[in-house]
Amino acid sequence: MDELAQKIYEAFPGKIVRKDLTKRIKEGANVPVYVLEYLLGMYCSSTNEDEINEGIKNVKQILADNFVRPDEAQKIISKIREHGSYTVIDRITVKLNIKEDEYQAEFSNLGIKEVTVSSDDVEKYDRLVCGGIWCIVQMDYFYDENDRSKSPFLIKRLTPIQMPSIDFYVVKNARSKFTDEEWISLILRSTGMEPTQFDERVKWLHLARLIPLVENNYNLCELGPRGTGKSHIYKEISPNSILVSGGQTTVANLFYNMGSRTIGFVGLWDCVAFDEVAGIKFKDQDGVQIMKDYMASGSFARGKEEKNASASMVFVGNINQSVETILKTSHLFEPFPSVMANDSAFFDRMHCYVPGWEIPKYRPEFFTNDYGFITDYFAEVLRELRKVSFADAIDKYFKLGNNLNQRDVIAVKKTVSGMAKLLYPDGNYNKEQIEQILRFALEMRRRVKEQLKKIGGMEFFDVNFSYIDNETFREEFVSVPEQGGGTLILEGIGKPGHLYTVGKGATGMLGTYKLETQVSHGSGKFTKTGVGTNREAKEAMDTAYKYLQANYKNISASIGVTEKDYLVDIQDLNGIGITTQLTIQTLIAMCSAALNKPVISSCVILGDLSIGGTMIKVESLADSLQVAVSAGAKKVLIPMVSASDLPTVPPELISKFQLIFYSSAEDTVFKALGVE
Fold first, then answer.
1. Which of 51, 63, 388, 676 could cross-link with 46 by S-S, CB 3.0 to 4.6 Å?
2. Which residues are CB-neighbours of 508 under 8 A, at least 6 positions away?
3. pLDDT surpassing 90 at residue 376
4. Whole-prediction pTM value?
5. Percent helix / strand / coil, the chain, rounded to 5
């Protein structure tokens, strides 16, 4: 036993277990981890190898004899009847039968109902009536000839496997005996992970997964590759969370059943996690709207009543492309179903976006063999932490920057509170420790805001998150690592006939488009590709060709129209459907290719041209510029008629470009090709 293990053993006697024992038994038994570790804690909480081996034999024997497998339910029922008494391990849910005025239990795997439970048990273990818990139950069998309506099954003794209560002061008092690194190692080992296999960044991302279990009404999203343990915490580690697999549910299940007048998952569990977000689907049309209301306020209206609940919401799912590709062409909430994927109001309620792509795929050595809390004890510690809040932890040392709106402030403070509770449950932390947590919290929320900026445009422009030191008044800015990745618009001079534009696509969203042009000797043929069946886009490009035919001599006599064939291809880089604002862009692309002269570097062409040669102003100038800067543009050509809209653009956005104004079609071509 190493020094840390010895320290853990002395600080939490009877509350720890060697995690390799869990793995040894778990591989052969389909039992939740917290059930296994409860038994291991009873029989194997020792450092003596012989005692541990004997304990494992006992646990295996108990599971073989008493754990109820659904396919063996009738065999166990028969044993109860034949022996008259038998002990089972099953998940039990209790309801009050009003007509009989008694509490009655339903056994999940055993499949029996209406078994009388004493009021004393319900009073002692209230979670029996709040969604059910795993129990070790000693059962008797007595068939009463005089009362055949009564169940013959009787509960002689009921022992919940989930700990009914803990002394939280033990945890508070013990925290000071551990360094930050040792405490993080204890937490990660308690979840089954081996901290020595991860760098500090990955350790913190694992801790972030636990925030919904310690913070009330916390909304977290984690998308990443398969096999990184995204749903492991919510399925195996805590009996207080529920994983909704497949994502399909109803308002009645999740929130409130109007028929039975019973509250749904959000009132029964500390955390409701949705696995595979791409499959989230409500059978009710108002499901997403009710979820939005709940995520914002912790309450929801059903019928005439407004209900409150404290369950956190977690959304986990897979990303099928590289993050660099998604950031170039879309946003990081793309895997969500279409009903949510472009709903900025829904995603604005997310407090934290954990970058799942930074967590490596799990390998066998990532799972610990060392000592950690018994999972059930650990789950109750996390549950106890929900009763306190450290949201004001930053106020003593820091203020948040002016780019954070009210929702951003709430999100950051909730994340700070959650991380502080996990790392410093005793409330003893210093300025440097809180600053590290604050930077992490700002990054997690900024990741959400960066995606909102792509979905909702200028409404979410303020993404430069910062904090200010109360003593020195120094302002520090926090970025997200992935934003420094590649861009759609390549740096440097491109090929002749290649250019970029920003326009409104078929979906109504603004996106980036690339035009590529080829010129060959021919007879004046004009071919368009990439526009599909979009009639307006084809007409816009035809208008450009007709304008070139009529006015090419005003640009350069060497262009030639009748003796050359032109092919212009449009690429929809964001996958939002082809734009129809293509006339001036197609004209410049053809001139560039014909003259074999490339467009100036990192440039986007905005605006459009009518058949009569009139310049058309840019729709949504500020949003268009925002899309351009996100795509990597450094220069923007804008029609002079849009100059009057410049006051609507934030100064910090304008400062990121060299703005070049044009007044006519010919002027645009000259400036785009860098001709004085």
1. 51
2. none
3. no
4. 0.73
5. 40, 20, 35
